[in-house]
Amino acid sequence: MQNKTIFDKLGGQANIDAAVVKFYQKVLSDPSVSHYFKNTDMKKQTEMQQKFLTMAFGGPNHYTGRDMKAGHAGLGITTAAFNTIVKHLGDTLKEMGVPAEVIAEAAAVAETTRADIVEIK
């Protein structure tokens, strides 16, 4: 029997899409990180994040965006901001009834992007 991917454990595309929408609601209402999205087309950002997380969590790969380093270059993202973003993702998944062990797996995937995203320690 094949191990289920995080994508499968989260319930597939519809649940990932819903999670990303809820996630950005949290992020945009948090003044400690919302400024990073001040000049961002959030419809496009949401769609790209849905595709990225689908791919990163083991689902179909339809992500055509830049790599993490290029996509976040020059934004001055801090360690604290990265931690806050990951917390918002975890909180979103928890609110959606995702088990703690699956949230931990998702956080571990997010953690693999830290070195490419954080510019200010």
From TrEMBL:
InterPro entries in the cross-refs: Globin_bac-like_CS (IPR019795), Hemoglobin_trunc (IPR001486), Hemoglobin_trunc_I (IPR016339)
Annotated PROSITE patterns: GLOBIN_FAM_2
Cofactor(s), names only, from the UniProt record: heme
A Pfam family per the record: Bac_globin
UniProt keywords, alphabetically: Heme, Iron, Metal-binding, Oxygen transport, Transport
UniProt-recorded Gene Ontology molecular function terms: metal ion binding; oxygen binding
Top-level taxon of origin: Eukaryota
One BP term from GO: oxygen transport
Family to which the UniProt record says this protein belongs: Belongs to the truncated hemoglobin family. Group I subfamily.
Protein name: Group 1 truncated hemoglobin
